[in-house]
Amino acid sequence: MAEIVAGIGISHVPALTPFLVTQEQLTPEERGSGVQAFFDAGEWLREQNPDVAVLIYNDHGAEMSLALVPTFLVGAAEEYPPADEGNGIDSSIPEFPGDPDLSWHIIDNVVPAGFDLAVGQKMAVDHGLWTPMRALFGGHREQWPVKVVPVVVNVVQQPTPTARRCFELGQAIGQALRSYPEDTRIAVIGTGGMSHQLQGPRAGYINEEFDRSFLSRIVEAPEELADLTNAEYVHLAGSEGAELVMWLVMRGIMNSDVDEVLSGYHVPVSSTGAGVVAMTNR
Ligand code: DHB
Ligand code: FE
């Protein structure tokens, strides 16, 4: 049977990859615990030896423009090329191998459970997916050591799904994963945030206090986070910090009781609070 071997929440701000490169030559003491946590998360994840990463992210208008916005989409492709985000395709990013069998197992279970997913059989993926993959598996590589199943959430065009709905989608995907008959080791990675706002009068807004409380509540009190309205996310975390609802898909996939492995926070990375948390099912 499949086993969920890791749950991770992590920022996907593009500047995270070059930022971590600048820290590579430093000692853990020089980096500080908030930055070291990103290195430790990757090392710990690789030790869990996952075969597949179910990765929850949002497209930022690279592959899915406002012309076509699915609320929830699960990828079911053989492979996912990196998207062109305006500067051409980054040839240093290898294609991401897919796992269509696992994708269809999720889709076949989650749609009858009441989540009317869109399905992506040909799609490119943007920095929402590749920033966490680079941060956790290393930025410079010829091929990725895991397959991916992308789960795409609309956090761009109103109305976006509620945190509660994201949590419940995660619970439905979790049930599907637990019934997958193959001996597949699955890592679940929720991405986005932490607090940031890239536009309007509050551009540059960061709320460190909220981010730190989110990092502990995503482990111990996800129900509290699922109860927050989208307006509260925008108010507390900024208009783009509202991406944090995607961490609740990850948390819903995990068991209700989890053990925290590590967490860390560094501010700022670009114009965001950057955070990471890792957990295992109890
Ligand atoms: C930026 C982009 C993101 O998608 C995000 O979540 C945070 C920051 C950026 O371009 O700085
Ligand atoms: Fe983003």
Textual characterization of the structure:
- With 282 residues, the chain is α/β, with parallel strands linked by helices.
- It has a single domain, classed as 3-Layer(aba) Sandwich (Protocatechuate 4,5-dioxygenase, Chain B), CATH 3.40.830.
- The protein is built from 10 helices and 10 strands.
- It has helices spanning 16-23, 28-31, 33-47, 100-110, 127-137, 163-178, 208-220, 222-227, 230-237, 245-253; strands at residues 3-10, 52-57, 72-75, 79-80, 96-97, 118-120, 147-153, 185-191, 258-269, 272-281.
- Strands 6-3-7-2-8-1-10-9 form an 8-stranded mixed sheet, sandwiched between helices. It has a two-stranded antiparallel sheet with strand order 4-5.
- A hairpin with a 2-residue loop joins strand 9 (258-269) and strand 10 (272-281).
- Helix 4 crosses helix 6 (163-178) and helix 6 (163-178) packs parallel to helix 10.
- The protein is globular.
- 48% of the residues are buried.
- Residues 12-15, 60, 192, 196, 240, 243, 270-272 line the site of 3,4-dihydroxybenzoic acid.
